[in-house]
Every structure is written in C-alpha cells, then in structure tokens.
Amino acid sequence: MAATIKDVARACGVHVSTVSRTFSAPHLVNPATRSRVLAAADDLGYRPNRAARALTTGRTFNMGLIVADISNPFFPPLIKAAQAQARGRDYHVFVADTDEDPRVEEELIRTFTKQVDGVLLCSPRLSNKMIERLAEDVPFVVVNRRIKGMPAVLMNVAQGAKLALEHLAGLGHHRIALVSGPIGSWTSNEMQGAAAEAAGLDLIFFGPNQPTEAGGLAVAPEVAACGATAVLAYNDLVALGLIEGLAAMEIGVPDQISVIGFDDILPGRLNRPKLTTVAMPAVAAGRMAVDLLLQSGGEGATVTLDTALIVRESTGRAQT
Amino acid sequence: MAATIKDVARACGVHVSTVSRTFSAPHLVNPATRSRVLAAADDLGYRPNRAARALTTGRTFNMGLIVADISNPFFPPLIKAAQAQARGRDYHVFVADTDEDPRVEEELIRTFTKQVDGVLLCSPRLSNKMIERLAEDVPFVVVNRRIKGMPAVLMNVAQGAKLALEHLAGLGHHRIALVSGPIGSWTSNEMQGAAAEAAGLDLIFFGPNQPTEAGGLAVAPEVAACGATAVLAYNDLVALGLIEGLAAMEIGVPDQISVIGFDDILPGRLNRPKLTTVAMPAVAAGRMAVDLLLQSGGEGATVTLDTALIVRESTGRAQT
DNA sequence: CTCGTCTTGGCAACCGGTTGCAAGAACCTT
DNA sequence: AAGGTTCTTGCAACCGGTTGCCAAGACGAG
Fold it and tell me: Are the Cβ atoms of B60 and A54 closer than 8 angstroms?
C-alpha cells in the first residue's frame, strides 16, 4: 500500500541504502543524487517507517507518559508541558491512563516497552520493587515517587503540608483531619509524614480514599463527626468533594470547617468558596521529567520542586 | 540487553521459529516442547518485541487517539471509555494532544502512522481534504466531523442546539448571542446552522473564539454590549468563562443574562450557578469510535448519538 | 513389515529500514 | 604519471520476529 524505501530506490534507479542515507545521513550522498531521491520520494508520498527504523537504531523518538487518572485536572497541564518540551526535542509523547489500577499500569508499561525510548511514570501506584523490575526493560523517570537510583521529579509535598498546617494553626485550628489518598501514593505518605511531625496539633487520619470527588464526598460524614475544625485533603478533587459533602449536611466552609487541598487545579479556583490549596508545580514537573529522561542515561538524578500555599476562601478562623 | 527470541531458542535448543510459534500459534507445537520453551522464556524474562512483530504481521494492537485539548474536561471521559473498550479487545490506546494546532495535529498523525492500527480523531481542526489525504496512510475514525466515506461518530449538536433555543424561547428570550468556537470545528458549524434555522429569534454571532474559559472571558464585554438576554456558548468551558466575565462586570446570571453551554462537564455541575447545558454523549462516543475502528475495514459507517438538554441554574426568565 | 498420514520443527525468505565495509571514480599532490 | 585522498555508492548482514514450505519421525492400518 504505502510506498517503501524499495519503491523509491527502484523509481530512481539507486540502491536502497542510498535512499536510506538520503534521509538519515544526507551529507553522505551526492547533492544531485539526493535531489533525485527526494523528488522520487515526494512523488510516491514516501515516509520512512518509524517502527522499522527503530528496530535497527534502537531509538523511536517517542516517549510514554502514564498517569493514574487523566480526568484529574491536575494532570493535563503536566502532560501538555511534557508534550511541548518533547516536541522541542523532536520527540513525541504518548499518554495512557491506568484507571488507578496497578495491573493496568504494569500492562501499559509492558506495552510501551520497545515502542518508546522511555516512560514518564506520574504518581505511580505500583510498588517500588515492581517498578525497579520493569526498569530493566525500559528507562523511567518517575514523578512523585522516590526510588533509589532512578531519575525522579519530586514535588515538595512535605514542605507544602507544613505550610498548610502552619496556616491552619495560625487561624486557631488545633484539631485537624487528614484525608489521605490511595494506597501506593508517595504523595499521601509524604503528607502524613510531615503532618506527624507537626507539634501541638491533634491530627485524625482518614484513609485510604479514592483521590476523586467521590472519595471526598464519601468521607465527609466521618470528617464532620470527628470534631475537627479543619481538614487537609489529599488533593483538590477530594477537597471539592468534601466541601460538597459538608454542604449537603449544612456544614459551611469555611465558617464551620476549613478545608485545604493540594494541586491548585482550575475547578478549585472557580468553586464557591474558592479553594485554599498547596500549588503543585505541574508544568515545571512535566518539563523536567522530559529533560531528565533525555539527559540521564538512566542515571538517578533527582529534582525536587517547591510548592506554595495559596490562600483563598475555604479556610478561615477557627470557631471559638 | 533484554532477551530476544534467539536467546530463548538457544537456551532450550530449538529453532527460533519454534519459539515464535509457541507464542503466536501454540497449537502447532508439541506440549512438551512448548512448556520447555515457556520455562526458558520465563527464566530469561523474554517478552516478544511488539514493534518487531508488527513489522511482519502489519498489526500493532494499539490505536492512537488525538484530541485538540486534553485540558478540556470534555475529553477525559471519552478517552477513558475508549481505553476501556479497547482493553476489552486486547488493544491499547495512545493519546496525544494537538494544542488546537492543525500543524501539530498533522505531525502527530504522521507519527502514529505505522505505529498504530488506526487513529481516533476527536474534534479535528484539520481540513476535510487534509484528513482524506492522511487517511491513505492510516485508518481513521473521526469523532464530531462528517467526511464522506469515512467512519464517523457524530453527536447530534443540531438537535441539542434546537432544544436549547426552544428552552430559551420558552423563557421569553428573543435576542440571543451565539458564541461560536474555533475555525475548523464541525460542532461550531452545526450549532450555527441549527441556530440559523430557528424562526422568530434575533441571533447575534460571535466568533471564532478559543474554546476555553479564556475565550469566554474575552467575549464577555461584547456579549454584554450587544443587548442579548441569553447566550448559547460553544461549550461549557466558554460558558463558564463567560459567566465569570459577566460577573466581573456585575452582570448576574441568570438574572440579567441566561447562559447555556455544551458538553456537560464536571466543573459546570459545581459552578455557582450550576450550568444549564446540552449533554454530549462522550462515553458512548469513545466506545463507539473504538468499535467502529475495529469493525470497519475503513468502511464509512456513521453513527449519530443523541444529545440532551439539562436545565440547571444558569438559565431563567427573560427580564421584561 | 510396509505404506500412508499426521505431527513436529527446521530452513529460509521476508517485513522496512540501517550501517560497516569496500570498491570505483574523481580530484589532488608532487 | 604514479600514488594518495576524498566522495559516492553498492553489497550484505543485521534488528526481532513471522510464516510458507518441506523433510524427518511417529503412529496406525492393513
């Protein structure tokens, strides 16, 4: 059907290797011949078959990007940043969604192996051990997970959690609910770790939870019942669900309970009340992850990006 | 590095073809030999190289999915539905985002060619002519675009627009602004076409616009100035931006102006006021697109899915 | 015991390119 | 004019599998 390198070679009476060189090493072929080949190629609509080329060169010039849930508005900016950065490096990014399922995640990685030059693994749900094993077959850069010897882009969640807790303490909150995320989430662990170190606060942990609005909605009754005056939620989606759930029980935010999320997604900015949140550097992370993959020959550089507290309307003084 | 079919063959003293058959035609190899091969393969951690296999078989068992803007909450449900459906058919879906740029779209399609068995083209921005040309190299299913002889999944936008206009007319609105989308959008054209047929209404067209909140925000002043009492927006994102922009000018929705969007995305349900919208069958479309790609040998079946008006809080009686 | 049939597995060509090697041509040098 | 360079191009092996064809061996029937 589509023209191959042989068709082009035949069309202009030259060996296939010459055609091949015309595209991948133009300086090695006589300008006159080159233009003859290019003319014939253009004429037949020839495009090099990237998969076939990859077979011998070992490079596909594309990379995979795996996320747990593409519906989470946190990811699209990261994805777009990665795609843009990759495009600037002559690479293409293929995205896939695991539906929060570690088995699907593994299967997708296996599928990507040999079809991409590396995989950006964002907020993985697989165990470190499994990731290390899979890393034997394809280079990784992990985002929001620390694995020894593996290049990683981390967001300083602990710092963000600390800022958030200080903010709440400053508003007079002492009893604070911590609504964590799914099992296998490094982010969730970091948050809990940072919270556990905070002195003088009475923390109640809830989890694991789905990292979605449904998850927030579901824990709302428990959170309301536990007597906390403020909540630190795993992410903005959970925070929004929580606010919705509290509203359904006629509990006002921030009047009766303060809520802080993580991520700084767009819907949080449009919500009433506008969400106070710890902004995560998603765009920078997407860019960095691509660069790390391209630079590191698998070497374990680790980049940590800062987070920032953004105070909006969902937090206020504790009731006295 | 990774084990190849040859390593396995050597390891258990059989020819590579036998190993190959063990995986792709197990019934042709003696059970005893087969288990020996499987053991060796497992031992060496051998995985067939999908790209190499595709070279001879011509099938990759993966498909591409191209969207204009992955940040638009309209797409993730469609993407997830497509991925789930594909997974059930032993296929994998690779997603890519064009950033609303036709050139990027073309480049991505070219990249996908030969690396996937087909491409789902969602709300493309390329011209029909260009799409037809590219279709010579890779099978397509287009979503929200009608192209002769090409399988398509359409959403009945005209019907939805009609419902929306009737709803507004019923509330006493006569002067209605139509805020359209980007150039090259079939959806936008359908909306305009349907609107133009509506009798007894005074329509003012605004466009083209970016199909985002920024786009809605930007036209808000013009819309406010045109004297319309209601707006039909290209999609929910534009509608939300519009509401935001109107609010900044102290124009209340729905008290002073009614707003209807298209898509029924999640943020629209959380917004205050909750958005009245025409729900698009994104999930069904994702599923159908996959099936169409797998069934049709490129034959031009067209599926049209119904839309539905969902009345919430952003529309109300016209001021008298 | 011989013949015919069925299983099994090796051989080799092929998919669409890439690339090291070498030969011939053209161009310089001295 | 001989010898040395530099260019240009063809040859053939190779990447990792798949598959049509064929021969050897197993097995059952007569």
Answer: no
Residue B202 per-residue DSSP state: E
pLDDT at residue B205 is higher than 60: yes
Are B234 and B209 in contact by the 8 Å Cβ rule? The answer is yes
CB B14 within 8 A of CB B24: no
Q: Give the model confidence (pLDDT) of A14-42 as tens digits.
A: 999 999 999 999 999 999 999 999 999 99
CA angle B72, B74, B76 (to 5 degrees): 85
Structure confidence by residue, pLDDT tens digits, B23-79: 999 999 999 999 999 999 999 999 999 999 999 999 999 999 999 999 999 999 999
A37 three-class SS = helix
Q: Stretch B195-202: mean pLDDT, rounded?
A: 90
**Cα dihedral across residues A251, A257, A262, A268: positive or negative:** positive
Interface test with B, best of A94, A122, A264 (most B CBs within 10 A): A94
Does pTM top 0.85 for this prediction?
yes
* Helix B16-24 with B31-44: angle, nearest 10 deg: 100
**H-helix segments, A153-212:** 157-170, 186-197
Nucleotide D15, nearest residue via CA and C1' = A56
Name which of A58, A101, A66, A112 is nearest B61 in CA terms.
A112
Q: What is the pLDDT of residues B167-183, one digit of tens each?
A: 999 999 999 999 999 99
Cβ <8 Å between B95 and A92: no
In a 3-state reduction of DSSP, which class is residue B306? coil
- DSSP letter at A27 equals G
Whether B105 and B67 have beta carbons less than 8 Å apart is answered as no
Q: Please name the residue ranges forming H helices in B96-235.
A: 102-112, 128-134, 157-170, 186-197, 213-225
Q: With contact defined as beta carbons under 8 Å apart, do B293 and B208 qualify? A: no
Which of the 20-39 residues on chain A come under 7 Å of nucleic strand D at their beta carbon?
A: 21, 27-34
